[in-house]
Each structure stands twice: as structure tokens, then as C-alpha cells.
Design brief:
The strands form two sheets. The protein has a ten-stranded mixed sheet with strand order 1-8-2-3-7-4-6-5-9-10, with helices on both faces. It has a four-stranded parallel sheet with strand order 11-14-12-13, covered by helices on one side. The longest helix has 16 residues. By secondary structure, the protein is an alpha/beta fold. Helix 1 crosses helix 6. The structure holds threonylcarbamoyladenylate and magnesium ion.
Length: 318
């Protein structure tokens, strides 16, 4: 049985105790809900992979209450320090060289010599991480490959009875995952996953980022970014300008086309922050209608639009 507890002081204390006892706890962050386990325990981390049916070669992000704790197991260079000072707590994950023998479970990093780390800024996540006072490994709290959860209900829909506890902190406010930057190679800053912190904000601090995920050439830098992901069961049709009668529409902006079985609008006023916040919940809702396809209007690519486009492109892969 999965227990759902409110994000009160007692709820957060219960969640911290459960994590320290090796249990699986879903908790809110400002981006999406995470599925947490104590990152120093191989047994606990292994349960994350089982519950999500996550491929064993896809490493996890370690969540910590502050950069201080992260420095115990990850090597921060000047760029990492600058970014941490500018954007933590916040929706930014740094991939850094791992300090071996500092107790991070090999299951969490999948044996890589790097580690992904983030300080979330959600008040519930921060309170929880302060109580645990150890790194908490947490992927998004959904079944592998599926749409990320932005509410406790979404977590339950995917993982009920596979996890011990859900800390219910209501709907998250950003709605899209953190931006992942790989700084593990000297002189190179690689954007592995666009996310809640924009490219422009990052580049204002450390200068130009190397373009993309570069999966095609060389060794795989981020295994989790390869495959189809973030996907509803219903097929997607991107850049739709019209809707067919057996489709549902995910719209954006003031004048969506008429027709179709149903329409949800990510942001009638054309606001990308509002669109990011609504994206996953609306995809889940449209998925449940049982249409032949979900038609999705084109959104601007600037700012948060880069991360939204990234998720939709991955979700549309068959
Ligand atoms: O906003 C977020 O980042 C959420 C919340 C819960 O913090 N977490 C999240 O985790 O999205 P997940 O596991 O769904 O995505 C983490 C991504 C994966 O694509 C993984 O491959 C990549 O980070 N990653 C983790 N460790 C890595 C490493 N050492 N090197 C390269 N990529 C890594
Ligand atoms: Mg995920």
C-alpha cells in the first residue's frame, strides 16, 4: 500500500524517516514530482529502477539541500561554482566528476565517473532534504518513458502500490524538468537536456553552451536522453494547424482551430510559462479521452519553448 501524506511538518518528517529507512518516497519539486530514495544505499536506489521499470543504464539525479553537501561527492570547478551561486536552489542539474569513495551508491550513477546533482527550490523538497541531510536520488515519479507527474494524483496513477509514500504538495509550479548541463569535461559546457532554466540564463553566466546532446557521435553522454520519452499512449501529431474529427487538440494562443473531439489550451494568452505548467497535466487529460491522435499546435521555440519542443519531439517518436 502506498500512503499519501500532506506536506505538513509531520508529513515531511515521516517522509524523511522513510527515506532514511531505505523506502521510496515521491515528493514535489518545483519542476515535477520526484521518486526519491537514499542515494547512499544501493538497495534503496535499486527499488527506484524496479518501480519505474527504468533501464539500468540510465543514471539518476542526486538532490541535496545545498551546494555544500554536493561538494562532498562531486568536484566543482569555477564554472560549476558560478552556476550554483547563480541558480541554486532552482531547476538546474549539473553533471560533474564524481568523488569515488564518498558513499554514493554505484546504482545511482550506473557506474559512471560523473554524477548529476541539483538543489531544488520547492519549499517541501528543501525541508525534506534538510531533514535527510544526505543525497536523495530522484528521477521523475512516473513509469519509465511516460509523461512526468506534476501532481500527487499523477504519481499515484503511475506508481500506486509500487512505492511507500507520496508527499502531497499540490501542483508544481514550473511543470517541466530541470535543465541538465554537463561540466565534467574541462573547457566544455554541454546542454544535455533543455529544461526549466533557459539557455539564455545559463549563457549569461558561463558563456556559450555547446549545442546539443550529441548522441550520434562518440560515447553516450546521457543514456536517458536517447529514446522515446515523456509519451502519452495516444499518438501525437505536431505543428497541427487544423484538427480532424477523431483527434483531440492541444492548443496554444488566442485562436485555436475548431473541430475535433476536445480541445485544451496550454495558454490562451500565449504565455510559455503557463504552457509549461499545463503541459503534462493536459497531455494526460487528452490521453484519457481515447482519440485516434493528439494534434498539437506549434509553440515558439524561444525561452522555455526550447524545453517544451524537446519534450514534444521526444513524446512524438514512435
Ligand atoms: O527536474 C528534474 O530534473 C526532475 C526532478 C525530480 O528533479 N528529475 C528528473 O530526473 O527529471 P530524470 O531521471 O527523469 O532525468 C534525469 C536525466 C536523465 O536523462 C539522465 O540520463 C540524466 O539526467 N543524467 C543523470 N546522471 C547523469 C550523468 N552522470 N551523466 C549524464 N546524464 C545524466
Ligand atoms: Mg524522467
Amino acid at each position: 500500500m502506498t500512503r499519501i501524506v500532506g506536506a505538513t511538518a509531520e508529513g515531511i518528517a515521516e517522509a524523511a524517516a522513510a527515506l532514511l529507512a531505505g523506502k521510496l518516497v515521491a515528493f514535489p519539486t518545483e519542476t515535477v514530482y520526484g521518486l526519491g530514495a537514499l542515494a547512499t544505499s544501493d538497495a534503496a536506489v535499486a527499488r527506484i529502477f524496479a518501480a519505474k521499470e527504468r533501464p539500468a543504464n540510465n543514471p539518476l539525479i542526486l538532490h541535496v539541500a545545498d551546494a555544500e553537501l554536493a561538494r562532498r561527492f562531486a568536484v566543482f570547478d569555477r564554472r560549476a561554482n558560478d552556476l550554483a551561486a547563480a541558480f541554486w536552489p532552482g531547476p538546474m542539474t549539473l553533471v560533474l566528476p564524481l568523488r569515488k569513495d564518498r558513499g554514493v551508491a554505484v546504482t545511482a550513477t550506473t557506474g559512471l565517473d560523473t554524477v548529476a546533482v541539483r538543489v531544488p527550490r520547492h519549499p517541501v523538497a528543501m525541508a525534506l532534504l534538510r531533514l535527510v541531510a544526505a543525497p536523495v536520488a530522484a528521477p521523475s515519479a512516473n513509469r519509465s518513458g511516460r509523461v512526468s507527474p506534476t501532481s500527487a494524483d499523477h504519481v499515484m496513477a503511475d506508481l500506486a502500490d509500487r512505492i511507500d509514500l507520496v508527499l502531497d504538495g499540490g501542483r508544481v509550479d514550473l511543470g517541466i524538468e530541470s535543465t541538465v548541463i554537463d561540466l565534467s569535461r574541462k573547457g566544455q559546457a554541454l546542454l544535455l537536456r533543455p529544461g526549466g532554466l533557459t539557455r539564455a540564463a545559463l549563457e549569461a553566466v558561463i558563456g556559450r553552451l555547446a549545442g546539443d546532446r550529441s548522441q550520434a557521435d562518440g560515447p553516450v553522454r546521457s543514456p536517458g536522453l536517447l529514446a522515446r520519452h515523456y509519451a502519452p499512449r495516444t499518438p501525437l501529431r505536431l505543428d497541427a494547424e487544423t484538427v480532424e474529427p477523431d483527434e483531440v487538440l492541444l492548443a496554444f494562443g488566442p485562436d485555436p482551430p475548431g473541430g475535433g473531439m476536445a480541445t485544451l489550451n496550454l495558454s490562451p494568452s500565449g504565455d510559455l510559462e503557463e504552457a509549461a505548467r499545463n503541459l503534462y497535466a493536459m497531455l494526460r487529460e487528452l490521453d484519457a479521452i481515447g482519440a485516434r491522435r493528439i494534434a498539437i499546435m506549434r509553440l515558439p521555440r524561444a525561452g522555455l519553448g526550447e524545453a517544451i519542443a524537446d519534450r514534444l519531439n521526444r513524446a512524438a517518436q514512435r
